UniProtKB/TrEMBL annotation:
It comes from Tenggerimyces flavus. One of its GO terms (molecular function) is ATP binding. Pfam families: ABC_tran. Keywords: ATP-binding, Nucleotide-binding, Transport. The keyword Transcription does not apply. This is ABC transporter ATP-binding protein. Residues 5-241 form the ABC transporter domain. InterPro entries: AAA+_ATPase (IPR003593), ABC_transporter-like_ATP-bd (IPR003439), ABC_transporter-like_CS (IPR017871), P-loop_NTPase (IPR027417). The lineage of its organism: Bacteria, Bacillati, Actinomycetota, Actinomycetes, Propionibacteriales. Residues 300-319 are annotated as: Disordered. Transmembrane segments: none annotated.
């Protein structure tokens, strides 16, 4: 099962460059969380702070009563065993086949026999749909298969917290859809707490239980997905609609002159797209963490965008 991750007042800078300030949020145990934000806003830096690879300037990260930001190296070594991490490029060893890549954490951190290692490795390879590819080298397979192999390796120690750094980068929409379904199925099967950094809007709209948005050196919003997907904040509307117009610029935020020019020209952001139904596990049953569609909006008196929470009609169903 997953564990709760509680972040309080986290601030990080590199030299005189502030990355973000006073980030506070809680990743509920066993839920899928997504972190959005324009490029360069420090989403990957946030992941590295959670796992203790980078130390924040201020703030706390509490996991099972331990503060990752201030604990000893010995305690941090133990805490890291709770994590599984999928890096952007899979980070596989190019000279090892997929089997040995997945087996590496078991051989490095446990004293299991090779027969037990083989049982666990083949179980994880099967979970991510790579049966029969275990003898291939990373250079002999597609980018999507490398991502799944990296995911199998991240799962091999049965982590309670899964960090996925842009798992969909470099994948076409079809492979991204398969990967999203795999993540939902793994979440249901393992009960781990997931945090996914992504730029893919469809992933953010259908996969998570909770969504956050990093922007302008702070956490603009974090909470149940319906909260963000129904938000009228200009930065949210611009990001979800993938529009040039709004507070986000090419570098990061636009200056006052640019925003004034857009306002003078009468430029308006389009309305928010409908909130889709949440992606369910492959077995068709609701997730253990799933909230009834529209519950958050109804509780807080928020009118969701028109057409929200309607089933998707496929081409096959229409014919």
């Amino acid at each position: 099962m997953g564990v709760e991750v509680r972040v309080e007042g986290l601030t990080k800078s590199f030299g005189g460059q502030l990355i973000w300030r006073d980030v506070t949020l809680t990743l509920p145990e066993g839920e899928i969380n997504v972190m959005l934000g324009p490029s360069g806003t420090g989403k990957s830096v946030f992941l590295k702070c959670l796992v203790g690879l980078l130390k924040p300037d201020k703030g706390h990260i509490y996991i099972e009563g331990n503060d990752v930001a201030t604990c000893s190296e010995r305690k941090l070594y133990e805490i890291r065993k709770l994590f599984g991490v999928l890096f952007q490029d899979g980070a596989l060893f190019g000279s090892m086949n997929l089997y040995d890549n997945v087996a590496f954490p078991l051989r490095e951190h446990t004293k299991k026999s090779e027969s037990e290692v083989r049982r666990i490795v083949m179980e994880k390879i099967d979970m991510v749909g790579l049966q029969g590819a275990e003898t291939k080298l990373p250079g002999e397979i597609s980018g999507g298969m490398r991502k799944r192999a990296g995911l199998a390796r991240a799962l091999v120690l049965d982590p309670e917290i899964m960090l996925l750094d842009e798992p969909d980068s470099g994948l076409d929409p079809v492979r991204t859809a398969f990967l999203n379904q795999l993540i939902v199925d793994l979440s249901q099967d393992t009960g781990a707490t997931f945090l996914i950094v992504t730029h893919d809007i469809n992933t953010a709209r259908t996969v998570p239980d909770n969504i956050g948005l990093l922007y302008h050196r702070h956490l603009a919003m974090f909470g149940p997905r319906e909260m963000l997907l129904s938000s009228e904040q200009p930065v949210v509307r611009q990001f979800l609609n993938a529009q040039r117009f709004g507070p986000i610029g090419m570098a990061e935020e636009k200056d006052a002159d640019e925003l004034a020019a857009e306002a003078a020209a009468g430029v308006e952001l389009p309305p928010l797209p409908p909130i889709p139904l949440q992606l369910t596990p492959s077995d068709g049953y609701a997730r253990d963490t799933q909230r009834p569609p529209g519950e958050w909006c109804a509780t807080y008196g928020i009118a969701p965008p028109p057409g929200s929470f309607q089933p998707t009609v496929t081409a096959g169903a229409m014919s």
